[in-house]
From TrEMBL:
Gene Ontology molecular functions: acyltransferase activity
CDD domains associated with the record: NAT_SF
Gene3D superfamilies: 3.40.630.30
The protein's enzyme class: transferase
EC number per UniProt: 2.3.1.-
Domain N-acetyltransferase: residue ranges: 3-164, 193-352
Protein name: GNAT family N-acetyltransferase
PANTHER family: AMINOALKYLPHOSPHONATE N-ACETYLTRANSFERASE-RELATED-RELATED
Keywords associated with the record: Acyltransferase, Transferase
Length: 352
């Protein structure tokens, strides 16, 4: 069948509501079984500009599938997008998904110049996984206990399709493995430090911490950090800690936050830690990580704590493994660094 492919429109609310609440779609995606038509209409009336959504319709105009590209917001990941695809239960196996996927990939390649398209699929959704493999998506790992479905935390298969030009995928190149700006303490002594909750007034100190070359090389921060941005972020109400030296200067920053507002992912939190390069190897990162794990495990409802780390950041990887994080996936060409696209590891540990 020749399907008509067009952009999702506000007038599609009723058809999209029927699609999103189909039992098979609910089971194999992150949709909720009971959604109001009004909530779907509100979504379409205020559709986010960083999501490009298309639909597949039959020759008589019936909407039977919807898919899209959720563009990464982080400046150093703007080459990537998260793909989603839903086909109504009664139209499974009739080519609608393939037609829509081809259109989305053409849109990504020829109009958005995306270099990495990633997705997650429930581990037992074998038909979808086979479809993605036919169109060049490769298995990168498995996120354990990722998707709450029918009362069970199910694993998700992580897949991605790459389209890098020669020389762009610069993962693990020797010239980028050094951590610029790091200052090793040669006398073996450890200087005293303390931890406390971060406050908006810490914005200047955290921004100064983020200004180091090694910080930018090992995180997704940009050069020339903005104090106002950090004041806003530290006011967001997330669990955040800072490490202070004896003089009260900020030498470390760490936090836990939820990656989104989908209730089926409400058990997941993400973690990030930054330590001043002069304090590497002094126990600051370990202290911040222990404190976050204790508070998250004892007082917060999260079950899965996850993070991403550049695959060549051996000291950080060793620290996370020491505290129970396991490597789940290698995300190829995940982030821009030094003009090349580098691999990251997805790591996670259970909290409950």
């Amino acid at each position: 069948m020749n399907y008509q492919i067009r952009r999702l429109a506000p007038t599609d609310a009723a058809a999209l509501h029927r699609l999103r609440t189909s039992p098979g779609v609910v089971r194999n995606t992150l949709q909720q079984p009971f959604q109001s038509l009004a909530s779907v209409q509100q979504l379409l009336d205020n559709f986010p500009p960083h999501i490009h959504a298309l639909v597949a319709c039959t020759p008589d105009g019936e909407l039977v599938a919807c898919g899209g590209l959720h563009l990464a917001i982080s400046a150093r990941r703007r080459h990537s997008a998260l793909l989603f695809l839903m086909v109504r239960d009664d139209w499974q196996g009739k080519g609608a998904g393939s037609s829509l996927l081809r259109a989305l990939l053409d849109y990504a390649d020829n109009w958005l110049d995306l270099k990495r398209i990633e997705l997650d699929a429930v581990h037992d959704n074998h038909g979808a996984i086979a479809l993605y493999q036919r169109y060049g998506f490769a298995h990168e790992g498995v996120a354990r206990g990722f998707n709450l479905r029918e009362g069970v935390y199910e694993d998700a298969v992580l897949m991605a399709r790459l389209r890098f030009r020669p020389g762009e995928h610069a993962a693990n190149l020797a010239e980028h493995t050094a951590q610029p700006g790091a200052v090793a303490r040669r006398d073996g002594s450890r200087q005293p430090f303390s931890l406390r909750h971060s406050e908006p007034a810490d914005a200047a100190g955290v921004a100064a911490l983020m200004a180091h070359d090694s910080t930018q090389a090992n995180t997704l921060q940009l050069p020339y950090p903005n104090e106002a941005f950090w004041r806003q972020r530290l006011s967001a109400g997330n669990l955040g800690l800072v490490a202070l030296d004896a003089a009260g200067g900020i030498i470390g920053n760490a936090g836990i936050w939820q990656p989104g507002d989908n209730p089926r992912l409400g058990h997941i939190a993400e973690l990030g830690i930054t330590v001043h390069p002069a304090q590497h190897g002094q126990g600051v990162g370990s202290a911040l990580l222990r404190a976050l794990l204790q508070q998250a495990g004892d007082y917060l409802p999260y079950r899965r704590l996850q993070l991403k780390v550049f695959s060549d950041n051996a000291p950080a990887i060793a620290l996370y493994e020491k505290y129970g994080f396991a490597r789940e996936a290698t995300l190829r060409g995940d982030s821009l660094r030094h003009g090349g696209y580098h691999d990251s590891l997805l790591m996670a540990r259970a909290l409950k």
